[in-house]
Amino acid sequence: MREIRRTAIWEKRGKHFLLQAASILGFGLSWEILSRVGILSPVYFPPPSALAKELFQSHMLEFYKAPYAQQSSELVLINSIVATVLRVIAGIGIGFPAAVAFGFWIAYSKLAERVFLPIVTMMAPISPVAWIPFAMLLLGIGNLPALFVVVVSVFFLITIATVSSIRQMDPMHILWAKQYGASPRQTMRYVVLPSILPSLFVVLRVNFFAAWMSVLVAEMVGVSQGLGQMVMVGRGLFNMKLILIAMILIGLCGYVLDRLLSLLQRHMLWWKREVYIA
């Protein structure tokens, strides 16, 4: 019975993956046709085939490797992707556990709640992009401001989500843990944390896109390498192909990272079953 259920789940996942791949390919094919027939201007919307040709020939990226003269253009492009992705992963890796720990402290301490929760609630609505000038003045130009912006974009909202999730727990779960002799630390680790992680991962996946966009904006103004900087270089050279290539890479990388977060969520929250309506 378990094998049949597992097979059915993988079949549904396979169908969803094929539909998603077909959707992306259909979008690219429509873009190609509309550009070829002249409905879309080839100057402002060159077809994907032209973008791929330029990308593989790497002629358009020669200017971009000036700070990295010992590297090939292809490697510079890969380094730009890796630099942006690593900034986001590092920022989330710092901000998410720190926010969960801080949220637990606020939820379990009346003093911490009265002192820090109003400050966190006040900081949460501030756009991460608004933190960029402050981060550059405080930390200078380089990786640190971009990393700081990602941490900020995750920290405050996850902290509030942690406090809210703990307050909305079923009190019977904690009561049963106490009746079985669990200590407060054991209750926190084996009852409270597994109960709130599903909702926290939902908030994290939604907030990931804000972190992704924020680091790209930070790269546009204060970093010499990254996908955001590629967009700015393309703008400065009036190179529409480079701008579109960077935008496509930004979208694809964001999509892949979101899928990886989904896989991580499924692996860590193994007790939560997925529900497919159709």
Write up this protein.
There is one protein chain. This protein is mainly alpha-helical. It is built from ten helices and no strands.
* Oligomeric grouping of the chains: single chain
Give a count of the beta strands, DSSP E runs of length 2 or more: 0
- The overall pLDDT, averaged over residues, is 80
Secondary structure class reads mainly alpha
Number of domains as seen in the coordinates: 2
Low-confidence stretches: 68-75
Q: Helix coverage percent of residues?
A: over 70%
The geometry reads as: flat
What is the CATH top level name of the largest domain? Mainly Alpha
Please name the defining characteristics of this protein:
mainly alpha; MetI-like fold; 2 domains; 278 residues
